[in-house]
Design brief:
This protein is mainly α. It is built from 8 helices and 3 strands, in the order βαααββααααα. A 3-stranded antiparallel beta sheet has the order 1-3-2, with helices on one face. It is globular.
């Protein structure tokens, strides 16, 4: 899925004009069955992963957000090829193939998908405030704060201005270490995903405490 996406990052919840993981998977499945069987396909997906009557794409997104990454980490011996990035509260989540998580794509994520997500939350906040829905207003306000924090942390990753955001290859000398976000996947998956785990961008841990210590920046 993620390797075939021209978007790079694929959201796990609706963002205007961007197909979610669930929508892409469901569309792909529908294309493989006869039109007469598509209604049955929707029922089977909802029954297997959610509740009958639920929108299949939404059900797949929910399953992927809760289950996919942990299973993928286990199946790849903790060297996942698809990464799951999430804000701390989970209100904004995306999947991306590791090799597409480039410096340029990080920048596009911040100025594209994430900005559109925050703009959508701001519109919902104004609507909830006008309607006097206090609980919803607080919930959305919290989601906006977490999304903005996520943006800040992505900025640290992009620039390497925070020590915890830096990639370190222990076998290279100091002058040969990446400056800012510049992963070299010839060096393996784990050194490159270490900054994401240190910054709290992953929904589940990939590396052990000992591995994080070995891969920690020296400055």
């Amino acid at each position: 899925l993620a390797t075939g996406s021209v978007q790079g990052f694929v959201p796990l919840s609706p963002v205007r004009e961007h197909a979610t993981v669930g929508a892409m998977v469901y569309d792909s499945l529908q294309a493989e069955v006869a039109p007469a069987l598509r209604r049955q396909l929707a029922k089977e997906i909802a029954t297997a992963l959610g509740e009958p009557g639920d929108d299949p794409a939404t059900v797949i997104d929910g399953w992927a957000a809760a289950e996919f990454f942990a299973r993928h980490v286990a199946l790849t011996d903790r060297s996942p090829e698809v990464w799951h990035l999430s804000s701390r509260d989970g209100s904004f989540q995306v999947l991306v193939h590791a090799t597409m998580c480039t410096r340029e794509q990080i920048d596009l994520l911040r100025t594209g998908l994430l900005r559109e997500h925050i703009d959508s939350l701001n519109r919902r906040l104004r609507s909830a405030h006008r309607a006097g829905r206090a609980d919803e207003t607080r919930e959305i306000d919290d989601a906006i704060r977490e999304s903005r924090r996520f943006d800040i942390v992505l900025g640290w990753l992009h620039e390497g201005t925070n020590a915890q955001a830096r990639i370190r290859y222990p076998w290279r000398d100091a002058r040969a270490q990446p400056q800012g976000w510049a992963p070299d996947f010839e060096e393996g998956m784990r050194p490159n995903i270490a900054p994401l785990q240190r910054l709290g961008l992953l929904p589940v841990a990939v590396l052990t405490v000992e591995e994080l210590q070995v891969l920690a920046p020296t400055e």
